[in-house]
Amino acid sequence: MFLAVQKDVFSPGKELDGLLCDLARLANNLYNQAVYESRQYFFASDRKPWKVLSYPKLYAALKERENSKLLHSQAAQQVMKSAYEAFKSFKALHKLFRLGELEHEPKLPRYRTKGGLYQVVFTGQSLSVKDGLIRVPLGRGGAEAFDRDCFHIPLPERLKEVEIRELRFIPTNGHWVVEFVHESLETPALSCKLHSESVLALDPGLDNLLAGVTNTGQAFLIDGLPLKAKNQWYNKQVARLKSILTCGLESTRGVTSKQIQRVTHKRNCFVRDYINKAARWVIDFCLDNGIDTIVYGRNKGQKNGVNLGHKTNQEFVQIPMLSCLPGLGSYA
């Protein structure tokens, strides 16, 4: 049994939205505190990248801080673990750099924007379900601070028969996304006859999102023009809205608005849906034709310093060339 994630756009009422914002600010503050502790440990260790503050020591340093106490204990632990994982990744990347397998030296994880929002994660151990509602606890400190010990959100109908392993509240583009991590609803696949000598090669591109050919002579193309068109529409809309906000000033860096956030969300949803459907089609093709192995063309750093002209750069850099890989892996 493997885990799956259902993402839903969540529109809380005014009171719950305020509560989620408060929790997300606490999580953001706690993350920055965890980064500070880890960076100070790094500097005190003569900047040796293999010296990373362990999670038990990080937890011991932060568990009595106000931001940690006001969050549910498991939610606070998830924030600290995410900061710890960031430094753990830094350590692994620096090792690759020392071995000459990475061109640029990785930088230390940075602080998040002061006063910003960060995701709040509750593990399944702290959740309970009753009458189609998920009870999300706030913990002792949160109950005292917010005059309530929990809040409730509706459980999606299709998930009522499965166990929720994790619940994530993610602030993104001016709204909330709720991720339900649960046991997969996929029924075990019927045994199908795959031929170990059958191979499918995939080449990602622009006009053709994926070009596939098998060693038996079969071939297919998955159209990439809808993604290019959506990106073109998105860039024009954002440029127009930023021009209005800045009254035509040249610099628009960091400029945003609720309308820009809505346009960005719409574009991101389209891209994710299109790529997931493409990955599903490829897997079905492999099952129908007994293909055992998929070879995916991956060019590391192919977007770094790309200079193909303004228009082509825009199309090439903004299309996530490797996004099909997670989809292929999960469907396979």
Kindly describe this structure:
The chain is α+β, with helices and mostly antiparallel strands and 332 residues long. It has two domains: 3-183, no CATH class; 195-331, no CATH class. Helix content is 45%, strand content 21%. The chain contains nine helices and eleven strands. The protein has helices spanning 14-44, 55-62, 66-70, 73-98, 139-146, 225-246, 258-288, 310-318, 324-331, and strands spanning 3-10, 120-123, 128-130, 133-137, 150-154, 164-172, 175-183, 195-204, 208-214, 219-223, 291-296. The protein has a four-stranded antiparallel sheet. β6 and β7 (175-183) form a beta hairpin. α1 packs across α4 (73-98) and α7 crosses α9 (324-331). The longest helix is centred in the N-terminal third of the chain and has 31 residues, at 14-44. The radius of gyration is 23 Å and the shape is globular. The two termini are 14 Å apart.
Briefly, what is this?
The chain is α+β, with helices and mostly antiparallel strands. The chain contains nine helices and eleven strands. It has helices spanning 14-44, 55-62, 66-70, 73-98, 139-146, 225-246, 258-288, 310-318, 324-331; strands at residues 3-10, 120-123, 128-130, 133-137, 150-154, 164-172, 175-183, 195-204, 208-214, 219-223, 291-296.
